[in-house]
Amino acid sequence: MKIKFDVKTKRIKCIKFHPTRPWIIGGFYNGRISIWDYRSKHRIGKYDQHKGAVRGLDFHPNQPLFASGGDDCIVRVWNYKQKKCIFELSGHIDYIRSVHFHNEYPWLISSSDDQTMRIWNWQNRTCISVISGHDHFVTSAAFHEKKDLIISSSLDNTIRVWDITGLKNKYFSVAPTLKDPVNFYTPGPNSISELQSDLFGSTDVMLKFILEDHEKGVNWASFHPDLPVIISGSNDKTLKLWKISDTQAWLMDTFNGHRASISCVIFDPIDDLVISTSEDSTLRVWNTQKNINTKTFRKDGTKFWAVAANRNEKLFAAAHDYGFFVFKLQNERPAFCLNENNIIYFKNESILAYNLNSNSQAVVAQTSQNTQVSDILSLQYNPYESLLIIELQNSFEMLSLFKRKFSSPRPGLGSSAVWVSRNKFAVIHQKTDIFIKNLENKITKKIQINDELFQQNLKQNINQNFSLPNAHNITRLFPAQNGLVLLRSASMVFMLDIQQQRTVAEIVAKNIKYISWSDDMQFLALFNAHSIILCDKKLSHLCSLSESIRIKSGKWSKSGVFIYTTLNHLKYCLKSGDTGIIRTLEKPVYLTTIKENSVFALNRKHDIEPLGMDSTEFRFKLAINEQRFDEVVSILKSSKIFGQSIVSYLREKGYPDIALNFVENERLRFELALECGDIKSAFESAKKIDKRECWHKLTKESLKLGDLEIAENSYKRINVSQELSFLYLVTGNINGIKEISKNAESKNDFMTQFNNTFYLGDVETRINLLIKQNQLAFAYLTAKSHGLEEKASDLQKLLESQNKKVPEFKQKTPILMQPQLPILQAESWPLLMLLANGIFQIFKISITTTIIIIYYLMIKFWGMTQQLISFDEDNSSQTIDNQNAWLDGVDIDLGELPQNSNLLDNLDSQNKQPQTIYVVPIHGKFKSEKSFESSEIVSDHVSTGSFKIAFHLLNKQIGVINFKPLKNLFLNTYLGTHSTLFGFSNLNPIPLEITSFQTEKSLSIPLKMEIIKKEFKKALDLTTSGKFSESMKIFQNILFSIPLLIVDDLSEVKEAQKLITICKEYITAFKIEEERRKSSKDIKRSLEMSCYFTHCNLSLNHLILSLRSAMFLNFKAKNYGIALTFAKRVLELGANQELSEKARKIASFCEKNQNNAIKINYDERNPFVICSHSFTPIYRGNQKISCPYCGASYLPKFADKLCNICEKCQIGLEICELINQNF
Questions:
Q1: Which of 388, 568, 655, 1187 could cysteine-pair with 650, CB 3.0–4.6 Å?
Q2: Interior angle at CA 1037, CA 1031 and CA 1041, nearest 5
Q3: Where does the COPA/B second beta-propeller domain start and stop, copy by copy (predicted)?
Q4: Over the stretch 238-282, which tens digit does the pLDDT of each residue have?
Q5: 715 pLDDT exceeds 70?
Q6: Cα-Cα-Cα-Cα dihedral of 577, 580, 583, 584, to 10°?
Q7: Neighbour tally for 287: CB within 10 Å
Q8: Helix, strand, or coil here: 948?
Q9: By the 8 A CB rule, do 1096 and 1068 touch?
Q10: Among residues 242, 215, 245, which one has the least CA distance to residue 229?
């Protein structure tokens, strides 16, 4: 049994699959109805209207409807598109047990504890028949899928089969169709037939058979969808199989095995199987041909209530007291392998080979009898010896293929058999050993993974970040290159060298189920149900992705693109991490090989299906990533893939200029032109768009790039005089300012005229403007301050004539201040001048085009593609790895830039005179960068100022995402390895690296364990003194410092790990104490915090103090039972005499009365850990996640958040391990 979807909820009484969509609906005991998508694994609908348990549910086969019935005696019909109940059907007077839609007619049948069944016409919302006959509760009722029959079961120990032919003839003149489903006659409300139906039961539904063999009440009965058989389940703990014909029905078989009442039973719609659920906590699968119980699934502590089947996907679902789960009875994945142009696969107990050239297949071998698809895990083919290994559960078989006479299989013991050379293969034996066997199935080498010598060989690689694989965790082998094999554990994949018996590579990869090697064995894909990891042959991580829909299979194309399938899509993934959809799939398929624009896949019927594939999109993205721009242009010209997604992709990758050549939408052209710095194209688009916001953007960008002409035109378009005046001022265009002043005067724009008088130094005009605005005082001060005494005198007389106060002028010597006029008028900024093609021709080109030409010349003449430095004047040639990351260091990678083929083709046609030749510098490496270039130790890179690499290593090794707390530590470490040389007083000091005298390498000054220990002792002393806040800061600083710690031996490694754990415990305790003080008004929460404090792993003295506090607080709150627990713990730990005496008194008092006045969330008998975010207990058996660095525990809902303890790592992140060994 393979569980596909498991939901933990309250008790579910009924469950049904949607006939076409990947949905499942469940009815709760509390009256709620929910719909889930079992592929994406989330709830998509919730309906609350029933009062009491919902016991019956059913989807309509064609309409967006479902029906429900429950303890409120009402049948409700819902529209799941409108997400509401559209009408109710009333008539039953007791609990409704089941509802079921008819496949063709607009009918709905319901069964009830009122001992009747009712058939409703859901279109006109009336009851058309009441069926009576049972003497007890009617537990189920359903229509036959193809015949005019109804089956019902009851607690009167019978199953009854009813004929509804008369009812059909009464209401339908002809059989309904999908086009005309409402061809029926409905009698009036006062008709005799309806009156008889209410009084005496329906005469249109005739009882055909009564099946009486159960000793107790029957809970469920079902028709087989195709065969004339019935299955029933009863309170007598038995299943009974019945056969019916047109004239009689009889018992065929009885199935015994359940130990309690059987709640539900259904047929497998495809195989000869029956699935039953029972109140004995089991779900059982029965073979109807052999009358045996083939599988049993037990879920202790719960009762199963319902089971449902999905005919289209071979899925089943079972509902129980704590939710439901969707499952498959067996694996449907076909087993296959490749041999040149042949696909070798299993079907019908035979091994077949499909030839890709001739599109024909042939049987090449026979397997053992009764070998099923679900038994085969994989096929491994050896082309040198024409041998095939069939991997089974804990065993394997070896077959010779392509022989005229079929050979019998040679069995062997062991799991996960894979070829490691042309005449040897490896198997896992008893989960602890790897056996290397020859073609005679004899052991040639035995590798014990837990052998001391083997582990010692692995330990030699500890400084290279290799981990020891646990013998009990190696669960599967995968093939690799010759002489190598991949080992899979729960969270890692290792590459094992068979000859040297040691791992040579590893990668973090959880629960990997399948792998796929590229044809040249250079790249590897590791994937499970929901994630894919791409890596190279040395297991170096390239990219990873996640899918919400299950991943079914995957193969590499010859171009190096990984193609994979989900349940309903064929997708691709590039090594850069870019993904996309190639096409949709009608049903799940499993890829076998890829040939040009076709993929060959196996379906679940084990037939080869060729599928067409349009590779244009991923070829385009691959060409962009590999910088094959000629192919990019060719694809864009010859295909129709260019759309919004391709434009977004080009913009994301930094190639908007490529998109600009193909986009026709003017708004988008405008945005692309701004991104790539093509101001002239942006100007042309802005003229066509002619919107104010576009002109604002264009003005801003043109000023950045120094195109003054376009900036001026843009300002004029939006009529912003003041901004344009200032532009003229800084560029020295005095005439332009005067022109703006004239225009402002005609428009009576006082402020523009006034500001321009300052730019022009025109004091007289400024005074006249102030006079016009009746600002005589300001005009007087202006004249006075500029030394215009005559004008000031006139204004003074004017003020006095108007009886206004003349302002006092305090300046002693007035000065006529005039602005400096520019000597030269500025033009648009010159662009870069570059020598090209080895001929003395200089081209005035844009920065982007310059980079393209540089890239082209470097490839053509020097054969290299080195990273170029930034063209910004302020940028030094030093990269960010050698600078302080907080000092805004810049690391611009210009190595991946587009190549403009049109420009390169026309280089010879350009003919402009050079002004200055720019020589492109070559990017090099600094001495400090070379010293620790290959180091995996964080402090080495911090010492040299390579903070970016240090950040990357910390994220990879311990999951750090918040680097702010590390700032001072990084700066101090960096400054400790650098000094300065002072020269002349007017020159800046020269920074110097401190290097080793012996090796002349950069010196890394590590943090040592002795310093950490001193701080740790200080924190313990402060804790003893009750200074929790000061102590917590020191413990947190220790956690911040340990990643930069350098250890000298394995004992210090263990000591550092122990320090991390202790710091985590103390910080957690302090956080709990903070929470207790915050919630001092909430007595319940305060008591909980005091109890949780005692479960932190502190030193003995501190633990006794925490127990003392919890004991007194609970005793004071009259929680005597809990106080007794803490008193006993105090006595057991041997507290001092005074505290022990108080504990004895409290224990003596509490033993007489162990009641708790306040109920709190605390159970001392059930082991738990504390969630460090919500400060609630996580009891044993419940799911939890942890911080990858400090190990603090959290509830799953806090995944991906910042750890509350160490305050720097991401909760639940998958990591490698911290490397700080110096040995």
A1: 655
A2: 145
A3: 458-603
A4: 999 999 998 899 999 999 999 999 999 999 988 889 999 999 999
A5: yes
A6: 100
A7: 16
A8: helix
A9: yes
A10: 242
Q: Which amino acid is at 349?
A: E
3-state SS string over 791-853?
HHHHHHHHHHHCCCCCCCCCCCCCCCCCCCCCCCCCCCCCCCEEEECCEEEEEECCHHHHHHH
Residue 336 one-letter amino acid: F
Which of 640, 557, 700, 34 minimizes the C-alpha distance to 323? 34
Can you name the residues that pair with 1194 across neighbouring β-strands?
1185
Burial grade of 250 (CB within 10 A; 0-12, 13-18, 19 or more): exposed
Residue with tokens 């003295």: 1101
The pair of structure tokens assigned to 686 is: 């802005």
| pLDDT for res 275 | 95
In the chain, the amino acid numbered 85 is: C
Query: Band of the pLDDT at 788, cuts 50, 70, 90?
Result: confident
User: What is the DSSP secondary-structure string of 488-556?
Assistant: E-SSEEEEEETTTTEEEEEEE-TT--EEEE-TTSSEEEEE-SSEEEEEETT--EEEEEE-SSPEEEEEE
Smallest CA-to-CA distance from 403 within 349, 355, 366 is with: 366
Predicted pLDDT of residue 844: 34
For position 843, what pLDDT does the model report? 31
Q: How far apart, in Å, are the Cα atoms of 616 and each of 364, 557, 631?
A: 37, 13, 11
Which backbone phi and psi does 858 adopt, to 5 degrees? -65, -40
pLDDT above 60 (res 1000): no
pLDDT in tens, 68-113: 999 999 999 999 999 999 999 999 999 999 999 999 999 999 999 9
Least confident of 233-237, 297-301, 829-833, 997-1001: 997-1001
DSSP string, 580-622: EEEEE-SS--EEEEEETTEEEEE-TTS-EEEEE---HHHHHHH
Q: Which amino acid is at 484?
A: L
What pTM was computed for the model? 0.59
Task: Say if residue 803 is exposed, middle or buried (CB neighbours under 10 Å; 0-12, 13-18, 19+).
Answer: exposed
For residue 624, give every residue at least 6 positions away whose Cβ sits within 8 Å of its Cβ, in sequence order, or none: 632, 649, 650, 653, 655
DSSP string, 1207-1220: SSBBTT--------
Cβ-contact 335, 41 below 8 angstroms: no
Scanning the structure block, which residue is given the tokens 């040679």? 410
- Structure-block tokens of residue 151: 């089956």
Query: Residues 752-759: contacts with CB within 8 Å, 24+ apart?
Result: 752/721, 752/722, 752/725, 755/722, 755/725, 756/725, 758/819, 759/725, 759/726, 759/728, 759/729, 759/819
d(CA 1008, CA 1222): 11
CA distance 461 to 376: 37
Residue from 446, 123, 57 nearest 264 by CA: 57
CA angle 581–515–476, rounded 5-degree value: 145
Q: Angle 536-539-540 (CA atoms, 0-180°, nearest 5)?
A: 75
- Residue 817, class by beta-carbon neighbours within 10 Å (0-12 exposed, 13-18 middle, 19+ buried)? exposed
Q: SS3 of 641, please?
A: coil
Instruction: Tell me the per-residue pLDDT of 595-643, one tens digit each, with 9 for 90 and over.
Output: 878 899 999 888 999 999 988 889 889 988 888 888 887 887 787 776 7
Task: Please give the Cα distance from 378 to 514 (Å, whole number).
Answer: 10
DSSP structural state of residue 50: -
Residue type, 164: I
| Amino acid found at 296 | T
State the DSSP H helix or E strand holding residue 1022, giving kind and residue range, or none if neither. helix 1009-1024
